[in-house]
Amino acid sequence: MRFTVYRNKDTAHPGKKHRRILVSETERLSYVGNNFGSGVMKCNSLCRYFVGVLDKESGQMEVYNAEIFNMQPLLSGNLIPDDTRDYQTKSYREKMDLCIEAFGTSKQKRALNSRRMNAVGNDILNTAVTKAAANIIDAKGVTALIQDVAQDDVQNVSIFLPPCNEDADKPEEVYKFADILSPAEYEALRVPAAVFVNITPEEITKKTEDKSHCSFVLEELKFLPADEKSRDHKARCLWFLDTLIKFSYLKVIKKKHPMGPECPHIISRKLMKNFTSLTYNNGSVQNLISASMKAKITAYVIALALHINNFQTDLTVLQNDMKLQESRMMDIAKAMRLKISKAKGLPGLESDQNHKLGTLSLPLPVQKASGNQRKRKKMS
Predict the structure, then answer these.
(1) Are 185 and 266 in contact, with CB atoms under 8 Å apart?
(2) Is the pTM of this model over 0.85?
(3) I need a surface site. Which of 33, 79, 174, 313 has the fewest CB within 10 A?
């Protein structure tokens, strides 16, 4: 390689006299570097560099000041602007591939060819899968396939539902209260639920203004029974339902007690064990509330609301509290074998909107395909 150094001829100017341009020439390309301008390396201004030259005869070394230059390839300056337009539209991966083709090592070029061959293989595989799917559709029919998918959807949702007793004689035995809250968990709710047992109308009004609880709970607190035992029971159910809904808002659980110190330990353990999934991230195991876990929380919220409201509840209010789409809420309600009907909303809770009521009654209706699946069937 041949090197040439150019210096600024204005040696009297303090800002220009140290400017240098270094040019290196090879048979294929020329490389250029400089110590001024916007692309200059910062290291030259932060520290000093030296080069030592050893005299082998005398054994002494002479030290000279040095600078570091970042050498860049100098491309031909007679390019037509249109020639670079196609290059500028390429992705970062495509530009890197072009660099590997031109300057890459043999190993890099082999890896590039291998990746391109795999991409061609994937295209061939996708074509084959598409053709096989078309053959299956022709053989079995669109209607039968949609029914199979709908049945799979029902089974997938059913995994996250509370245990269902299809042979129950009473609505309260379909989703048993003990499967939602064990006796020990129910007993642990006595202390935190005391704030609901003794709540006053003024406190309910203030909580409504502060939106410190979900709409369903705030509305039900207005109708606590006068009987002491029934009032305590409903207060415990409402407190746990409110905790479940708030828990569903979380994404990744980072605290040992995510619902605060007032939440009993047995309830915190239940939430973490039953309503989160484990994920591995950044070298540690974390508890995550996935979409499937949120569906499970929704199902348990609906089941508890049915016990609170004599097995008929406003699904739209729960949907808004859970921050779900209506189609998702309806899918879960239908998977729980509820009968869906329309009704005007409760006073002050979007009363102009037609609310959906879910009713648990016997005999249980037969499971059907979800609304989204029926839409796809019509489109076909």
Answers:
(1) yes
(2) no
(3) 79
Q: At 76, is the secondary structure helix, strand, or coil? A: coil
**Strand order from edge to edge, sheet including 284-288:** 252-253, 284-288, 277-281
Rounded to whole angstroms, the Cα distance separating 343 from 364 reads 21
Write the DSSP assignment of 266-334 as a string of letters. HHHHHHHHHS-EEEEETTEEEEE--HHHHHHHHHHHHHHHHHHTTTEEEHHHHHHHHT--HHHHHHHHH
CA count, 13 A, side-chain hemisphere, 104: 15
Helices (H), strands (E): how many in the chain?
Answer: 16, 12
Q: Report the distance separating Cα 189 and Cα 34, nearest Å.
A: 74
d(C-alpha 189, C-alpha 151), whole Å: 38
d(CA 261, CA 191): 12
Q: How confident is the model over 73-126, as pLDDT tens digits?
A: 877 554 444 455 666 677 888 888 888 888 888 888 888 888 888 876 666 777
Q: Are 221 and 182 in contact (CB under 8 A)?
A: no
Q: Exposure pattern of 136-168 as b/e (b: 16+ CB <10 Å)?
A: eeeeeeeeeebeeebeebbeebeebbbebeeeb
Place of tokens 């109708």: 223
DSSP 78-141: T--HHHHHHHHTS-HHHHHHHHHHHH--HHHHHHHHHHHHHHHHHHHHHHHHHHHHHHHHHHH-
- Neighbour tally for 244: CB within 10 Å: 22
